[in-house]
Write a structure and sequence with these properties.
Number of strands: 10
Structural class: alpha/beta
Helix content: 10-25%
Radius of gyration: 15 Å
């Protein structure tokens, strides 16, 4: 368990050997996402954050052919389901340089109404979303294609999702000791 924000929580890990497995993780999480959830993706360049984000957005909106470019230069992009019943906000905060840039995004009013996928949340993300799901992506030293993906959330609903996914033998998510 890791001490975060005054709570002890379980941290879960998946060793992803391919972009396909990273996408399968996103597809497994997507059905549980509701408006107000914020998937916060951290990790070095090239660790799979954008692969995960694309797969998650496509799965949430049930549109496998959806074009999902990285919002590196536009900062944010909103996607709607074909029937307009679901909205996903995809943000890449890498290029933001100061906290005042965040105020222009009006996240306080937007985040509760959409599922958010936020790359580089450590760059001035404020306020911290209440329903935050953190995913940390790491390069593995033993295999160039493989990644470690750590998942955690203070939300008990997401802890239950992670626990249930750990029983899915094809994903092989497991609790880790910190």
């Amino acid at each position: 368990a890791e001490y975060m924000g005054g709570l002890y929580m379980q941290v879960w890990k998946l060793v992803s050997s391919s972009a396909h497995l990273t996408s399968r993780l996103a597809s497994a999480l997507a059905p549980h996402a509701v408006a107000g959830d914020a998937f916060c993706l951290s990790g070095d360049l090239g660790t799979g954050k954008s692969v995960f984000a694309r797969a998650l957005i496509r799965s949430i909106l049930d549109n496998p052919a959806l074009e999902v470019p990285s919002p590196t230069f536009t900062i944010q992009q909103v996607y709607e389901s074909e029937d307009n019943s679901k909205s996903v906000l995809h943000m890449d905060l890498y290029r933001l340089t100061k906290q005042s840039d965040m105020a222009l995004l009006d996240l306080e009013h937007t985040l509760p109404t959409v599922v958010s996928v936020i790359e580089w949340p450590c760059r001035h993300l404020s306020p911290i979303p209440a329903n935050r799901i953190d995913l940390r992506f790491f390069h593995r030293m033993d295999c160039l294609e493989a990644r470690d993906i750590q998942l955690f959330s203070e939300d008990e609903r997401w802890q239950t999702v992670f626990r249930n996914l750990s029983q899915n033998s094809t994903l092989q998510i497991h609790k880790i000791k910190l």
